[in-house]
Design a protein that fits this description.
313 residues; alpha/beta; Rossmann fold; 2 domains; 6-stranded mixed beta sheet
């Protein structure tokens, strides 16, 4: 069996003179959580819509199990959209049975599947409550259940943790892991939460300006901008950030210096050992350090290094 369940070949989409996606080539492995990241307007949403068969490409192709996405069996892909699609006056149990019926699941199996999903997503106690009376976190978990009631091979989750409290987010994360580990599903995850992408994804694609920038594991992506640390500083006079940045870039063994949200991030191996040199350079520029911390590289550092912006920008 092919290790790759989905492949895009030179996937391109034009809207008039505007190219939203430019020759995107991806291979998504069977049974992995595949993170798909990009700033607003990068082409991520258009790519996903083509990958699930909702939008025809201008050129290129999407293959699922070796077949064109428009020819695969109905129900192969389950999509959980960011916008919740729920029937407010039905109960969760009724909603799942209705969706199961739409997919042609036999009545007995529909009932068993609904009960299992309600239990797995901690909704059993609310099975007979109207959806309109559920909390936001419960509604989002029900939204996911409706997308996978028919046991799709591929599950596409678009911003699944949007608006969730930390406890509900953990429940959702554990369930996403179980889709991969216990059921062998392939999960395509779009998210603006970098810790979510880092903790859940086996591999991550980063797209910007309609093009694929990087595709690798979170660990390898974080190594790409140096295996060291980040010195995060806030200066007494942010107007001098540019001057200090140039001075720090001139130091030996400094990987990079970036200005992020009015602060300076210095990337370097053995950053702690280099602190006296870094601090001396800042002070010689005539400004004081108001705040300083040292931390390891994060996926967000990689994203900013590649795109020049935070994910929400």
């Amino acid at each position: 069996m092919n290790d790759y369940i989905m492949e895009t070949r030179d996937l391109t989409k034009d809207f008039g003179d505007f190219r939203a996606v430019d020759k995107l080539n991806l291979k998504i492995k069977r049974g992995e959580v595949f993170g798909f990241l990009g700033p607003n307007g990068a082409g991520k949403t258009t790519s996903i819509r083509m990958m699930v068969g909702l939008l025809r490409p201008t050129s290129g192709q999407v293959l699922v199990n070796g077949q064109d996405v428009h020819e695969v069996e109905k129900g192969t892909i389950g999509v959980c959209p960011q916008e919740m699609v729920l029937w407010e006056h039905l109960t969760p149990a009724e909603s799942l049975n209705l969706m199961g019926n739409m997919y042609g699941i036999p009545k007995k199996n529909r009932h068993e599947r609904a009960e299992q999903l309600l239990a797995d997503l901690f909704l059993t106690d609310k099975a007979k409550s109207q959806v309109k009376d559920l909390s936001g976190g419960m509604k989002r978990r029900l939204n996911l259940a409706l997308a996978i009631v028919h046991q799709p091979e591929i599950v596409v989750l678009d911003e699944p943790s949007e608006g969730l409290d930390p406890q509900s987010r953990r429940v959702l994360w554990n369930y996403i892991r179980s889709l991969r580990d216990d059921e062998g599903k392939t999960v395509i995850l779009t998210t603006h939460l970098m810790d979510e992408a880092d903790k859940l994804s086996d591999r991550i694609a980063i797209i910007d300006h309609s093009k694929l920038l990087r595709l690798d594991t979170p660990e390898n992506l974080k190594k790409e901008i140096g295996e060291g640390d980040v010195v995060d500083m806030k200066l007494s006079d942010p107007q001098q950030n540019g001057t200090v940045l140039k001075a720090l870039e001139g130091l030996d063994e400094i990987d990079s210096v970036l200005e992020v949200d009015g602060r300076l991030n210095v990337h370097a191996l053995d950053a702690v050992g280099k602190l006296p040199q870094i601090m001396g350079t800042v002070e010689s520029s005539g400004v004081r350090i108001l705040y300083l911390s040292v931390r390891q590289n994060t996926l967000e550092d990689v994203f900013i290094d590649l795109t020049g912006t935070r994910l929400r920008d």
